[in-house]
Design brief:
The protein folds into two domains: 141 residues, no CATH class; 105 residues, Barwin-like endoglucanases (Beta Barrel), CATH 2.40.40.10. It has 333 residues and is α+β, with helices and mostly antiparallel strands.
């Protein structure tokens, strides 16, 4: 009898123990599920942060506001190479405003905002050059991240306007307020060169030689029948400058803009255009002399930051170059 009672008591204790253990297991499982949810939420947050970081890392186009022809302007640079400049429709009111416009680009580019709240067509049609440039830069970044085929970037003339087609759906219109940063003063050539820069920078496609559908050029007049001739060639070391000088007055009286294709030279007249070629990599850029210098280190020319970027000079700081002084001559002379 005693043995039977002990057995019953032991069974009750075992059942109670099992119940407690079951409750503990349920509580632990619930806690683990809760922890898993929290952990999953953290991982989702981390993934989004990593995604945003990747998007920023993949962005190749930036916008730099500045002043050009006494008006507000903004230049789109792709991989630090100036590709498109957008001009404003109104002149900067006074010198203080001009300095303010230039100083915006002294240390950083314009942050590209989300365009979700404003239709891109509205921004592209805007008279504000910074808004327009921002929309185009955002478009370029998006197409780059989607892996656009650079062979589908083509210059064209359609419905009486010059455009650059980016794939099947997107276009950049070259109206009277858009030009190549180092403009050729020929809209057709500006469109062609800008398109070829995009083809190279967005995937290494070979350049094209013509603008599809472009009208045949008119018979040139004597005034327009000019070519660039190399009047003189120098070789030596080049350097670059920008930060710390951007927005200040240059020796020519012009406000220095580190994102324009300009340079300082000790003796060449202001306004002279020179072709600078990096001897190390063969890359060239045409710049306009608007400042004096350099005065140390045996260097022969001091390039703006944008010009230095165009020939791969930013990282090295200095490099051997060939400087060709260009003049305009009539054909046949």
């Amino acid at each position: 009898m005693l043995l039977s009672l002990l057995s019953v008591a032991y069974l009750d204790i075992a059942l109670a123990t099992d119940t407690v253990q079951a409750d503990e297991i349920k509580a632990q499982t619930k806690a683990e599920q809760s922890t898993t949810k929290v952990s999953s939420a953290v991982k989702i947050g981390e993934t989004r942060s990593q995604s945003m970081a990747r998007l920023q890392a993949d962005a190749i186009a930036k916008v730099y506001p500045h002043k050009m022809q006494e008006s507000a302007a903004a230049t789109v640079q792709v991989s630090n190479i100036p590709v498109l400049t957008f001009l404003g429709t109104s002149k900067v009111a006074d010198a203080s405003n001009a300095l303010q416009v230039d100083s915006q680009s002294a240390s950083k580019s314009v942050k590209l905002p989300s365009l979700a709240d404003e239709p891109i067509e509205v921004i592209v049609d805007s008279s504000d050059p910074v808004k327009r440039a921002t929309a185009i830069a955002a478009m370029i970044n998006q197409l780059h991240m989607e892996g656009i085929d650079p062979e589908k970037i083509v210059p064209a003339y359609e419905n009486g306007r010059y455009v650059i087609k980016l794939g099947d759906d997107q276009v950049i219109e070259f109206d009277q307020n858009v030009l190549l940063p180092d403009t050729t003063n020929n809209r057709q050539q500006d469109v062609l060169q800008a398109a070829n820069r995009l083809r190279r920078l967005m995937g290494g496609a070979a350049p094209v030689n013509t603008v599809a559908g472009a009208p045949k050029p008119k018979k040139p007049t004597i005034a327009a029948n000019l070519i660039s001739r190399v009047a003189r060639t120098d070789t030596g070391m080049a350097s670059w400058y920008g930060p710390g000088f951007n927005g200040r007055q240059s020796a020519s009286g012009e406000i220095f803009n580190q994102n324009a294709l300009t340079a300082a030279h000790r003796t060449l007249p202001f306004g002279t255009k020179v072709k600078v070629t990096n001897v190390h990599n063969g890359q060239s850029v045409v710049v306009r002399i608007n400042d004096r210098g350099p005065f140390s280190g045996g260097r022969i020319i001091d390039l703006s930051k944008a010009a230095a970027g165009a020939i791969g000079l930013i990282r090295s700081g200095v490099a051997p170059v060939k400087v060709e002084v260009l003049v305009r001559d009539a054909l046949g002379r």
